[in-house]
Design goal:
six-stranded antiparallel beta sheet; D-amino Acid Aminotransferase, Chain A, domain 1; PEP_synth; Dna Ligase, domain 1; 2 domains; alpha+beta; single chain; metal ion binding; globular; three-stranded antiparallel beta sheet; 11 strands; PPDK_AMP/ATP-bd; pyruvate, water dikinase activity; 284 residues; 25% strand; EC 2.7.9.2
Length: 284
């Protein structure tokens, strides 16, 4: 009832933030049932009680028709049992962010939402990024698009830096193009469960993030994930100490209709030619 009441207030700029805040405050008072608390902490101890990532996974999040990218909370480098429980509660509360409620209302999703929380061993990534196993801008399925940055991947998904962009042709896994971005900072795990911002030197800011061989290694992993799920994937990956990790995979939600078979075929009937730059800058 509280969610539906908040959703009904989406057109009221004063009522929506107030209703959403009341819902988040209510979640903040939740006490973990003893059996749930014991189960969570038991698994945390089984992971070694070290740093973990605490990630939200809501119903309908990044399904074929919707995308909640960046709306529900994810926390990196969470250390300690009390901090873990608090961050799980914070993930639950993120179901009732102003933007989340407004987006659900715009999609006519009026059912009470449900959110799971995933706790993963923290990958202290020195390089990370995202990868689409299809070109999300054209729908071309014969290429992969990889974006890469230094440090934790939050800088890419949140638009804090301009990442490198690598285009890989699936035919023979060939590196088709490289655009090196300029990165002024990186995020790294800090002491006591913190995440710290480090400014980069001019040399590091302008340096390429991945070698040709590493780009192909990331692309190979992307193809395996796509084959596993049987459809194009939007993934997050990371390198840590030379080892490649797949952090997350979900369906690509931006294709919106029949996909082009290849980049050459991806010529819309209206609008600018494929490949035209419409604007430049960092994502909001």
């Amino acid at each position: 009832d509280g969610f539906r009441a908040a959703a009904a207030a989406v057109d009221d700029p004063a009522a929506l933030p107030r209703a959403a805040a009341e819902l988040r405050d209510a979640v903040g008072t939740v006490t973990f049932p003893e059996r749930v608390r014991d189960a969570v902490l038991g698994e945390y101890r089984r992971l070694g009680s070290g740093p973990v990532a605490v990630r939200s996974s809501a119903t309908a999040e990044d399904s074929a028709g919707t995308s909640f990218a960046g709306m529900h909370e994810t926390y990196n480098n969470v250390v300690g049992e009390d901090a873990l429980l608090e961050r799980i509660r914070d993930c639950w509360a993120s179901l009732y962010g102003d933007r989340v409620i407004a987006y659900r209302a715009s999609q006519r999703m009026d059912e009470e939402p449900v959110l799971a929380v995933v706790v993963q061993t923290q990958v202290a990534s020195d390089r990370s990024g995202v990868m689409f196993t299809v070109d999300p801008s054209t729908g071309a399925r014969d290429r992969l698009v990889i974006e890469a940055a230094l440090g934790l991947g939050e800088v890419v998904v949140s638009g804090l830096v301009e990442p490198d962009t690598y285009i890989v042709a699936k035919d023979g896994l060939r590196l088709a193009s490289v655009r090196v971005g300029r990165q002024s900072l990186r995020l790294v795990p800090g002491p006591g469960g913190s995440v710290e911002r480090e400014d980069l030197s001019a040399a590091d800011a302008d340096a390429r993030v991945l070698s040709d061989a590493e780009v192909i290694e990331v692309a190979e992993l992307g193809l395996r994930v796509e084959a596993h799920y049987g459809e194009p994937q939007d993934t997050e990956w990371a390198y840590s100490g030379g080892r490649l990790w797949m952090l997350q995979s979900r369906p690509v939600t931006t294709l919106g209709g029949p996909s082009a078979a290849s980049a050459d075929d991806a010529s819309p009937a209206e609008g600018p030619p494929v490949g035209s730059v419409l604007l430049r800058g960092l994502g909001a």
